[in-house]
Amino acid sequence: MDDTRLSGAPAAAAPSARINQIYDQFMYDDLFRAYWGHSDFVNFGYWAPGTRDQQEACENLMEKLLAFLPERTGTILDAACGKGATTRHLLKYYAPEAVTGINISEKQLQTCAANAPGCRFLLMNAADLKFEDGTFDNILCVEAAFHFDTRERFLRQAWRVLKPGGRLLLSDSLFTRWWERIKPPGRMLNYVEDAAAYRELCQSAGFAEAEIVDAREECASRFLRNCVRFLRSSCLAGAIDRDALTKMSGRMSLYVLNIRHYLLVAARKAAAPAPGVTESGTRPSL
Ligand SMILES: C[S@@+](CC[C@H](N)C(=O)[O-])C[C@H]1O[C@@H](n2cnc3c(N)ncnc32)[C@H](O)[C@@H]1O
Q1: How far is the CA of 33 from the centre of ligand 1 (A)?
Q2: H/E element holding 56?
Q3: 223 CB within 6 A, ligand 1
Q4: Any bridge partners for residue 243, and if so which?
Q5: Nearest atom (ligand 1) to Cα of 61
Q6: Which atom from ligand 1 is nearest to the alpha carbon of 149?
């Protein structure tokens, strides 16, 4: 998510500079750090029944996405790794040397190293991946692809740097037309209507298939309810005043209410065809 106490970066700034300005402020704000339990996750999480707090919801979301993988082996790229909390979660299953995280924020990358020691972290734009073809067994991208310039470019790049048979796991927000016009990268470049259109986008980027679940209620809606409750209790405790409460909960609501779908996606790159067999599965005629 990208709402903040919201200074609102200048409209003329490059999209990546605006995104860094917003997140580098929001992610290091004491109030919101406390909301995420000082875990350094910054996403909606997945609010399964009985989930107690935002950090647990974020861990649930990681498990939901990783459950799409038939096995948690080989190498994995954490694209738009934030402050490295998603990367740290990967260390439950992967050795540090198997994990690479990328982000466009130098500030956040400095925090990543402390959160996930031994992993490789690189300053890199997810829409312009500098890796060789077929580098990773799997790629993860939690709540960030809607920022990329463009999402479609990222999907094509992700397909290229995946090994045959590899999967791209995403949680991704689909916004209203109005929001797509005003948020970076703007100009409707990342507007996608629904899950069916998202599947087509994955397939046109090269993926053989995409499993997609719409978890708007479990992720975005329950996040909003919980976050607004937290802001109200922070106001009652005197941590913020009533003006701040009104402003922050209003902006948070506006942001979340403009999300029409919150998708959990596993897009699979086709396995390499057996020797002598074409990608369509037929043997070439002699
Ligand atoms: C909502 S945060 C999610 C962070 C992390 N994945 C998590 O779930 O805790 C979005 C992240 O996307 C990063 N980001 C935005 N645009 C990016 C780009 N083009 N390439 C790489 N990272 C990007 C931001 O810096 C921010 O860390």
Answers
A1: 16
A2: helix 54-66
A3: no
A4: none
A5: 8
A6: 19
Return the ligand 1 atom nearest residue 20 CA. 25
Rounded Cα distance, 223 and 22, in Å: 19
CB within 8 A of 45, min separation 6: which ones?
Answer: 51, 54, 55, 56, 57, 58, 59, 60, 61, 219, 223
Q: Distance of CA 253 to CAs 95, 133, 236, 258, Å? A: 39, 41, 20, 8
Task: Report the candidate in 69, 83, 114, 79 with the shortest Cα–Cα distance to residue 99.
Answer: 79
Interatomic CA distance for residues 149 and 77, integer angstroms: 19
Token digits of residue 80 = 């738009």
Rounded (5°) CA angle 99-101-107: 145
Residue 261, beta-bridge partner list: 174
Q: Which three-class secondary structure state does DSSP give residue 239?
A: coil
Give the C-alpha distances (Å, rounded to integers) separating 99 from 41, 80, 204, 249: 17, 13, 27, 36
Domain boundaries, the chain: 15-268
Give, using CA atoms, the residue closest to atom 26 of ligand 1. 82
Q: CATH second-level architecture of 15-268?
A: 3-Layer(aba) Sandwich (3.40)
Residue 10 has pLDDT above 50, yes or no: no
Give pTM, 2 decimals: 0.92
State the burial class of residue 12 (Cβ atoms within 10 Å of its Cβ: 0-12, 13-18, 19+): exposed
Q: Which of 15-19, 59-63, 137-141 has the lowest mean pLDDT?
A: 15-19
Nearest to 114 by CA among 145, 85, 72: 85
pLDDT tens-digit profile of 133-180? 999 999 999 999 999 999 999 999 999 999 999 999 999 999 999 999
Q: Give the Cα-Cα-Cα angle 193, 201, 224 (nearest 5 degrees).
A: 45
